């Protein structure tokens, strides 16, 4: 087939295949256009999951009548000057509107502040209609009907109406977080209305917008982030370790105000929370990166969802370091959702969902606690199922049981004297009792605290081991014969550049001719290890993130295993002074709100919650 020039319609449809993946992609492009036009109010209406109708109305600057034809022409934009490396707007390609118009029925109605009237232009499957007068207020309304009617094959790949509507909601929420001063509304026959009132651009206003999107409980269970390094500024909020989700959908990241889904940022968040969360739980985060536009490439993907940093190691290190420092400085905190889970466990019928007793010294999980991330308690074998209260008093058998003496409920009391006032004012309070040989019950001025002694001490031992491990060079063992690992030349060079850091972790490595490295020492803690696989994993990580976290994580896992076996086991009776000493150590140790496996070490029930349980409130 001879080489020929593609038609304009086919060019736009090819571009649409890259830019317009689904209805949510259209909403993203149109809302970003509205925000770039200075809108303070954006209204989105959909029908049929967005396949039948998408309408975006804004109160922005509007498009002059003489520029409407350019607005739907390819590679025409008002958002990009002569420097492709200085992009400060959300859009810049000039492909969205012509791409959308090539696969749908598109109309644009707009009026500027200085215009006497509005004007309208339409496109249907790539065919442009003449500009005509219209009635409209200042701003722009873009209406997209019958999306993909001109490319019906794409319709086969669409999901159901509910899934497409959900994807659109996620797009609007992600954009809304970055623009708290803009009022956004999402409505339609295929969804319940989402209204996000405008707040302001202050830190408090931004957090209020985050609460609108992510729920009112997030601010109370989050830690503020504010850190800078070499011209890169990171702000935002991350959840405390005991406040988690089952997936990473509530991890929001922004680069210069642009919502992105970036592997490097996601990996950095995962690394920062690596030793405080279970593998199947995810932190909730809202992070904003601000840096010189020249140091980040937003032009690596047609949909502008991915970015590429000039110095990825700097960005990753900043995120990991800032989050870990914030977690360390935040002190010990329990998620506010813990009280709700605990109250649910005490309500009638809650015990019917409990699993069997604990195995291997760890608690089983109740179904209600799986949802909130908090572990359940085993039912006491001595708990009476029926107190026999019939409105007239206890029966003879029940009264006899009480006369025989108190039920053995607590294994140890922390003394009968009143606790010191200073202890009541601490975060975890004063120890009052130990129950079921594993749970310490403590009292503060306004709450009841229950601590899992094994999980808590496991975290304390782990942190001590980790500090000892990383405060000095890791002991290494010399290999009888050096292990030669063949690698691509660029991987071998990267490993050689990081040889000093690797040596500090006990891995002795040096170049061995072109495309190979020789491993002469390995960390003693690893024992017998697959050197070939370890080196290749390190090479891959350095290529992706310019770090050697893989080796550090392996050493940390060994420390975690040692901590688990070296901590106070379930079933050990503790003296009062031991209980209080454990509580004080927890308060002084960063990350002690969860154990090495990410399970909570304690839960707190406020006095007000207890009073509600007994109908006093």
UniProtKB/TrEMBL annotation:
Q: The DNA mismatch repair protein S5 domain covers which part of the protein?
A: 210-328
Q: Which residues form a coiled coil?
A: none
- Presence of keyword Nuclease: yes
MutL C-terminal dimerisation domain location is 431-574
- Domain of life here? Bacteria
- Keyword list, A-Z: DNA damage, DNA repair, Endonuclease, Hydrolase, Nuclease
Q: Which is one Gene Ontology cellular component term of this protein?
A: mismatch repair complex
Any one GO molecular-function label of the UniProt entry: mismatched DNA binding
Any Pfam family matching the protein: HATPase_c_3
Q: Which GO terms describe its biological process?
A: mismatch repair
**What's this protein's family per the entry?**
Belongs to the DNA mismatch repair MutL/HexB family.
Quote the PANTHER family the UniProt record gives: DNA MISMATCH REPAIR PROTEIN MLH, PMS, MUTL, DNA MISMATCH REPAIR PROTEIN MLH1
Protein purpose = This protein is involved in the repair of mismatches in DNA. It is required for dam-dependent methyl-directed DNA mismatch repair. May act as a 'molecular matchmaker', a protein that promotes the formation of a stable complex between two or more DNA-binding proteins in an ATP-dependent manner without itself being part of a final effector complex.
- Protein name, UniProt field: DNA mismatch repair protein MutL
Where does this protein come from, organism-wise? Mesorhizobium neociceri
């Amino acid at each position: 087939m001879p080489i020929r020039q593609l038609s304009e319609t086919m060019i736009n449809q090819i571009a649409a295949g890259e830019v317009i993946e689904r209805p949510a992609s259209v909403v993203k492009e149109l809302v970003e256009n509205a925000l770039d036009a200075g809108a303070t109010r954006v209204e989105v209406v959909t029908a049929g999951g967005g396949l039948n109708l998408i309408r975006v109305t804004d109160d922005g600057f509007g498009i002059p009548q003489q520029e409407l034809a350019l607005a739907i022409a390819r590679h025409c934009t008002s958002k990009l000057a002569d420097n492709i490396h200085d992009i400060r707007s959300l859009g810049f390609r000039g492909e969205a509107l012509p791409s959308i118009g090539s696969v749908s029925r598109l109309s644009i109605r707009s009026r500027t502040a200085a215009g006497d009237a509005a004007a309208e232009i339409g496109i249907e499957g790539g065919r442009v209609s003449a500009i005509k007068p219209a009635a409209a207020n200042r701003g722009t309304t873009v209406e997209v009907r019958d999306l993909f009617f001109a490319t019906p094959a794409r319709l086969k790949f669409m999901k159901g109406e509910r899934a497409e509507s959900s994807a659109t909601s996620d797009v609007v929420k992600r954009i809304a977080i970055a623009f708290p001063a803009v009022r956004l509304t999402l409505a339609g026959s295929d969804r319940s209305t989402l209204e996000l009132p405008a707040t302001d651009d202050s830190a408090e206003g931004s957090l209020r917008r985050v609460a609108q999107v992510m729920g009112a409980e997030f601010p109370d269970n989050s830690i503020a982030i504010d850190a800078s390094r070499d011209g890169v500024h990171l702000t935002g909020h991350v959840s405390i370790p005991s406040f988690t989700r089952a997936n990473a959908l509530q991890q929001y990241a922004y680069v210069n105000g642009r919502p992105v889904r970036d592997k490097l940022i996601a990996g950095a968040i995962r690394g920062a929370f690596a030793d405080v969360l279970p593998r199947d739980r995810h932190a909730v985060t809202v992070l904003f990166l601000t840096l010189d536009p020249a140091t980040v490439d937003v032009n690596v993907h047609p949909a502008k969802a991915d970015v590429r940093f000039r110095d990825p190691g700097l960005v990753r290190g900043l995120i990991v370091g800032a989050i870990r420092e914030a977690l360390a400085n935040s002190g010990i905190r329990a998620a506010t959702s813990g009280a709700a889970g605990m109250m649910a466990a005490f309500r009638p019928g809650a015990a019917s969902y409990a699993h069997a007793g604990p195995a291997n010294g760890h608690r089983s999980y109740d179904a209600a606690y799986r949802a909130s991330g908090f572990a359940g308690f085993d039912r006491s074998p001595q708990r009476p199922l029926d107190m026999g209260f019939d409105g007239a008093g206890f029966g003879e058998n029940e009264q006899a049981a009480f006369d025989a003496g108190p039920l053995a409920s607590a294994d140890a009391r922390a003394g009968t004297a009143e606790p010191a006032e200073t202890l009541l004012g601490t975060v975890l309070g004063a120890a009052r009792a130990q129950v079921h040989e594993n749970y310490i019950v403590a009292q503060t001025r306004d709450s009841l605290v229950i601590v899992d002694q094994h999980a808590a001490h496991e975290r304390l031992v782990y942190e001590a081991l980790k500090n000892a491990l990383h405060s000095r060079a890791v002991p290494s063992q010399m290999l009888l014969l050096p292990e030669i690992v063949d690698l691509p030349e660029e991987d071998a060079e990267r490993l050689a550049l990081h040889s000093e850091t690797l040596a500090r972790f006990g891995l002795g490595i040096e170049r061995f001719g072109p495309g190979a490295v020789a491993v002469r020492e390995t960390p003693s803690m690893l024992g017998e290890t697959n050197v070939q696989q370890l080196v290749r994993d390190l090479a891959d990580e350095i290529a992706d993130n310019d770090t050697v976290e893989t080796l550090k994580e392996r050493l940390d896992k060994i420390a975690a295993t040692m901590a688990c076996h070296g901590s106070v086991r379930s079933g050990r009776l503790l003296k009062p002074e031991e209980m209080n000493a454990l509580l004080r150590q927890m308060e002084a140790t960063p990350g002690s709100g969860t154990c090495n496996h990410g399970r909570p070490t304690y839960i707190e029930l406020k006095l007000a919650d207890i009073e509600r349980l007994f109908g006093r409130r």
